[in-house]
């Protein structure tokens, strides 16, 4: 079940634990504070996959990797004029297994569409980019994520050795409803 998790939500500790454990396990990263809004896919309260969401009013973490404001890059790369309110950032995606990602991504897409968000962007490792492409999500690359652009890069462990890049996807680029097909065999080895 897809769940929106603000700070006071009873599933918040579990969602944060899944994110922190995955980043520690996969990258040796010790994440500091997580964004105010999380989303999760759970089964009876057991978190299978979680991520963070940021909207314009929250500030965008991945924007620090960019040489221009995100809305200008959307216009430049997609040829469609964008406003900051048209955008959301997805971050800290973490799952116990790759197959758990698709239902969460589907829930995020549905939520953002209902909110009127036309563009989502995120920083993705090579592995995550492969997984999303196998799920038929077309991606526009905006920039490499350079550790020199953040403070306390050492807290991220080996994350920056995983070729993270800032990616963009437009609502019109994703089939509705999503996922049209997200079989586990397509996501294995991502």
UniProtKB/TrEMBL annotation:
InterPro entries: T_hemolysin (IPR022050)
Pfam families membership: T_hemolysin
Protein name, UniProt field: Thermostable hemolysin
UniProt organism field: mine drainage metagenome
């Amino acid at each position: 079940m897809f769940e929106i998790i603000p700070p006071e939500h009873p599933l918040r500790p579990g969602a944060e634990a899944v994110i922190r454990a995955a980043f520690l396990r996969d990258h040796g990263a010790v994440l500091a504070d997580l964004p105010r809004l999380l989303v999760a896919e759970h089964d009876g309260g057991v978190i299978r996959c979680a991520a963070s969401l940021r909207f314009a009013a929250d500030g965008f973490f991945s924007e620090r990797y960019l040489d221009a404001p995100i809305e200008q890059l959307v216009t430049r790369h997609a040829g469609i004029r964008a406003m900051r309110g048209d955008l959301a950032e997805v971050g800290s995606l973490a799952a116990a297994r790759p197959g758990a990602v698709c239902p969460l991504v589907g829930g995020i897409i549905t939520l953002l569409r209902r909110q009127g968000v036309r563009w989502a962007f995120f920083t993705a490792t090579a592995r995550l980019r492969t997984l999303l492409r196998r799920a038929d999500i077309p991606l526009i690359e905006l920039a490499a994520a350079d550790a020199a652009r953040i403070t306390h890069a050492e807290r991220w462990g080996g994350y920056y050795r995983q070729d993270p890049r800032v990616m963009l996807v437009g609502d019109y680029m994703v089939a509705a409803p999503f996922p049209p097909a997200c079989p586990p065999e397509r996501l294995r080895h991502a």
